[in-house]
Specification:
GO terms for molecular function: hydrolase activity, acting on glycosyl bonds. With 431 residues, this protein is mostly beta strands. Helix content is 13%, strand content 44%. The chain is globular, with a radius of gyration of 21 Å.
Length: 431
């Protein structure tokens, strides 16, 4: 076992410790031993863990992400479903195996610094306003580079547990092109910025996410498999995913999508609690996306004050998804990768063979939002098929929509609604 104190870091939260931390990680990998990060605040840029490394955080140990983009090495990676060169995360496991990251410590990404670059201090400005004015909403999320907190990429047999992840600049924990990954007992909190997903399972297999507690500014736990033409080119589905025994607070719940061009199948979501979330079980895609979402089981879900228990929108957020430029020879590689389309015949996502059972959704008497029990919207030419809801008790302001759904079965589904559908809720489609 090695301790970080043996390498004499500053641990003051003000002086960069990146080189010292990396030296310690490299030595731990060479010796195939554990590196213990003792209590202290370690200011750092991107760090890289090799195979057979165990990084253990003691209570009071914090990795504080540097606020300068040049402290995060540019790497070949995937961002929001598209392969490109982008900054590394704070902790990176790249093409490695048998890596463990655990312990009751914290990773703090100093998110507000990065969020302000994207949307300004008032959430109405920043680069987002600049790109919106140029009708370039579809590219701004990729152009405004922000570090993630943990990235597992092309890796196998890895575990991440017990940490607190907070204030991430972008996604908190991303798992891409991986197999046999276990994520447990994470606390994700204070993520009120743009694209601050909690845990993203991206074109990976045999992944379990369990016993976590999350509060996010975007999707809390999400399964993805690539965006549009680039996702179709890579063609790596997400499959054999288990998500269970988590508590989800603010954010958009458990989501499949929106990047699903390679497909998602065999996902089991169970024994989940949702408290004051915008969504419970969510699926989202777009007309340009393609892919098949199939063989999903969601059961034993408890939802309280959830605005949209079931939001399944196959043409979600057209402003973000619709490209305004065609690929040209002189286009920047990143832009060309994002702009790439799949063949028209393969567009529009197919959803089929979904089972939802044993769900309770309740609302406080003074719940202020308009809650919609169901929002299932597909395309007539590619309807959802074989959708089953069993043993559900849902309370909502309104029933909602069922559009382009074939072979829909409600078995012992009880819905209490207060009024007719409110058209004002249609704006949720654009979030």
């Amino acid at each position: 076992m090695l301790t970080i104190s043996q390498f004499h870091p500053h641990a003051d939260g003000q002086t960069l410790d990146t080189a010292i931390l990396q030296q310690a990680l490299d030595q731990a990998a060479a010796e195939q031993t554990t590196l213990v990060l003792e209590a202290g605040t370690y200011l750092t840029g991107s760090l890289f863990l090799a195979s057979n490394t165990h990084l253990h955080f003691e209570a009071g140990a914090t990795l504080l992400g540097a606020s300068e983009l040049d402290q995060y090495r540019e790497i070949e990676t995937r961002v929001a479903g598209v392969e490109m060169t982008w900054p590394a995360a704070i902790l990176n496991v790249l093409e490695a195996e048998n890596v463990t990251i655990d312990g009751p410590g914290t990773i703090d990404g100093q998110g507000p610094i990065w969020w302000a670059r994207y949307w300004g201090t008032d959430q109405k400005g920043g680069q987002r306003k600049v790109y919106d004015a140029k009708n370039l909403r579809w590219i701004v999320d990729y152009e405004v580079k922000r570090p993630r907190e943990i990235l597992l990429y092309k890796s196998q047999r890895c575990q991440v547990s017990d940490l607190t992840l907070m204030r991430s600049g972008f996604w908190n924990c991303q798992i891409t092109y991986c197999d046999q990954i276990d994520i447990s007992h994470l606390i994700v909190k204070e993520n009120n910025g743009p694209s601050t997903d909690g845990i993203d399972v991206d074109s990976s297999t045999n992944v379990r996410v369990h016993h976590c507690e999350l509060s996010c500014g975007d999707d809390c736990i999400v399964v993805k498999s690539g965006r549009d033409g680039d996702g179709h080119r890579v063609n790596r589905p997400a499959a054999h995913i288990e998500i269970d025994h988590c508590v989800v607070h603010s954010g958009y719940g458990v989501t499949i999508g929106s990047e699903v061009s390679a497909g998602v199948h065999d996902v089991h979501i169970h024994h989940m609690t949702f408290l004051n979330t915008d969504c419970g079980f969510r699926m989202k895609s777009s007309a340009d996306r393609g892919g098949v979402i199939r063989d999903i089981v969601a059961e034993h879900l408890e939802m309280h004050n959830v605005q949209f228990p079931f939001s399944w929108l196959m043409n979600w957020h057209t402003q973000y998804n619709k490209k305004t430029m065609a690929v040209t020879p002189d286009m920047k590689p990143m832009w060309a990768a994002v702009a790439d389309q799949i063949p028209e015949a393969l567009q529009k996502t197919q959803v089929r063979d979904i089972t939802v059972r044993n769900v309770t959704a309740t609302l406080d008497a003074d719940y202020a939002k308009e809650a919609r029990a169901f929002d299932l919207k597909a395309f007539p030419e590619k309807p959802m098929q074989n959708i089953r809801f069993e043993d559900c008790h849902l309370a909502a302001s309104e029933f909602g929509h069922l559009i382009a759904v074939e072979d829909l079965l409600f078995d012992k589904v009880y819905v209490s609604v207060q009024k007719a559908n409110d058209q004002a809720l249609e704006k949720f489609d654009t979030r």
